[in-house]
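Example record used in the benchmark description.
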Amino acid sequence: MTDIQQDGRARRQQDIFDLNRTKLIDTAVDVINEVGDIREVTLTQIAKEAGVSPATAYNHFPDRMEDVFSAIVHARMDVAANMGATLADNSLSVIDKLKQIPVTYAENLISLGYTGKVLIIQMFNLVNVNKWLDQDPVQAITALLSNSEEYQDRADEIAVNMATAFRGAMFEYALNIGDHELFNRYSEEFFLKTSENLVENILKQY
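Model output (structure tokens):
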């Protein structure tokens, strides 16, 4: 087999690998949302619904559901990677860019339905095993604030406070599962509104 043939075969194998991974991730979200109880979802079930063998699924996700959660986070929640154009847009002010970060995170989580809440609950474990996002939003927020004369001296402090406030809203939203009157107020609308006002409310303190 020539080098060209080997390269072509390797590319085809990679294409199949990538296609199966995407299929498994998309199917995982659908299955988790449909079942509505993460305790009843297995990787074998996801593989069956995706139309791939369990062996293929385990090859992609050797740590099973832990790896599935991580894959969904990286595929659907990597806001920093997907906001490059917005963050580089010189027509937007620093504050306008800042406001987009929590809103985009919130919209992504809400779009995932029940799966989004599952990811929030799984966050501690995924961070603990280095399977959460590589870049913390604090880094992006600090970088933006460093370009603002008004806030650059306290950029890191403000960024930490913004991230902490958002995580609080995020966990409140995740608690709104089922008919629990104590947490029913933390609806999608409440979470999104809180995210929209978060930057402005934090900056009022400085």
